[in-house]
Automatic annotation (TrEMBL):
It comes from the Bacteria. Pfam families: CAP (PF00188). This is CAP domain-containing protein. CDD domains: CAP_bacterial.
Length: 193
């Protein structure tokens, strides 16, 4: 009964949020995109160091190829971290939801590489180099900003043409699927705002 009441209350808030999103769309105002994971939360020092080390290894490889280093962006790192947490929770690598992450980043061009189980950043880069698609992402000269997110044995590298503009955290209630993923329709605004 309590769970049903919580769901009904959430549904009422979601409908109200949908009306607000529609108003923003009609007015031509930017509409925040929601993630199924919190955008930011406290990060353990070890995870932060692993993220920095992986971005450094990617940048060292890019520099050795005569390419500019990607600038680190905390917004992209937060989006990448949320995806890595999702993969860790599900126990599998998945590019599912990439379009949503790119929309959340607010860039017209993003690339993404994923890895699991590689404790040494150089091993992850070596693995990506052996895959033509992932290697092309590493060498993409159109992107200039990157963020790495680590959760457990999973890591996400998200690189985009532009940095993320600062936004407030936005989440969907636990257990609610990524709205709009299949249809391409943007998810509703967080009803708690």
């Amino acid at each position: 009964m309590a769970g049903e009441m919580r769901w009904m209350a959430w549904a009422r808030r979601a409908r109200a949020a949908g009306r607000a999103a529609g108003l923003l769309l009609v007015l031509g105002l930017p509409m925040p995109i929601l993630s199924a994971e919190p955008i930011s939360s406290p990060l353990a020092p070890e995870a932060e160091m692993r993220e920095q080390d992986l971005l450094r290894a990617v940048n060292d490889y890019r520099a050795a190829q005569g390419l500019a280093r990607w600038r680190g962006d905390p917004g992209l790192a937060a989006i990448a971290r949320a995806h890595s947490r999702r993969m860790a929770r599900e126990g599998r690598l998945s590019h599912e939801g990439f379009r949503q992450r790119a929309l959340l980043a607010g860039s017209l061009l993003c690339v993404e590489n994923l890895v699991a189980g590689h404790a040494v950043p150089e091993q992850a880069v070596a693995m990506w180099r052996r895959s033509p698609a992932h290697h092309a992402n590493l060498l993409d000269g159109r992107v200039a900003w990157a963020g790495v997110g680590v959760a457990g044995r999973f890591a996400t590298l998200l690189a985009c043409a532009t940095p993320v503009a600062p936004v407030a955290d936005a989440v969907l209630p636990e257990g609610v699927p990524d709205a709009g993923r299949e249809s391409g329709t943007p998810p509703a605004l967080d009803p708690r705002r």
